[in-house]
Design brief:
By secondary structure, this protein is of the alpha+beta class. It is built from four helices and ten strands. The strands form two sheets. It has a five-stranded mixed sheet, with helices on one face. It has a five-stranded antiparallel sheet with strand order 7-6-5-9-8. Strand 5 (99-115) and strand 6 form a beta hairpin.
């Protein structure tokens, strides 16, 4: 096993484009094999790796800290060790070839509030947008509607393609609650092809 390889594709497949790799790995991705080996990728580019035999956890720590510092979620891919000789680039290319994307609906509760400092919104019970102490509020632009503000925040944080609906739930003194529904892209993995034992599992969480 080698960390990286620039060899031509021996199986005659069309080379995988960088944008396809980024589509699958996202901004930050930690790949872990079932022998404990790990590698960290940023924008589809290799950063570092560790052999599972050493029991070194530094790669996972670097990945989590980098994602946290960048304000992004950290994708995880947990995979079996490929048969025969392999390198990390082989694994990433197979992931890119075997993954499809599909648009699905997601929803959550959003609170809008009128404060002396201006309008702001809060995402309730959201692992990324609620904040560490569930007290994160996002400002709303002066000429921005509530709908436009919620959509902007979701897209800015890489959570949505677009906002579909913002349905009123309740109103109180100076605040409103809505149910927000948005479209998001998820990665669906399938077997990469004949003779390939790499069947990935992908998940995303906060770093």
């Amino acid at each position: 096993m080698s960390h990286l390889s620039n060899a031509d594709s021996a199986d005659g497949m069309t080379p995988v484009a960088q944008e396809d790799i980024v589509r699958v790995l996202g901004v930050y991705c930690l790949i872990r094999l079932d022998n404990g080996a790990e590698s960290f990728w940023h924008h589809g580019h290799y950063v570092c790796a560790a052999d599972g035999a050493t029991g070194d956890q530094c790669v996972a720590d670097v990945a989590r800290l980098a994602a946290r510092a960048g304000g992004q979620s950290l994708r995880h891919a947990e995979l079996p060790v490929p048969d025969g000789d392999w390198c990390w680039n082989d694994i990433v290319e197979r992931l890119a070839r075997s993954a499809l994307t599909e648009t699905v609906r997601a929803s959550g509760i959003v609170t809008g509030s009128m404060t002396p400092q201006g309008r702001c919104v809060h995402f309730c019970d959201h692992p990324l947008l609620s904040g560490v102490n569930d007290n994160l509020w996002f400002p709303v632009g002066h000429n921005e509607s509530w709908f436009e503000a919620v959509e902007r925040i979701l897209i800015l944080n890489g959570l949505a393609e677009n906002l579909v609906n913002l349905s009123p739930l309740r109103e109180g003194g100076g605040y409103s609650d809505w149910k927000a529904t948005w479209n998001r892209r998820v990665i669906i993995c399938r077997k990469a092809g004949p003779g390939t034992s790499l069947v990935p599992g992908m998940r995303t969480k906060r770093g």
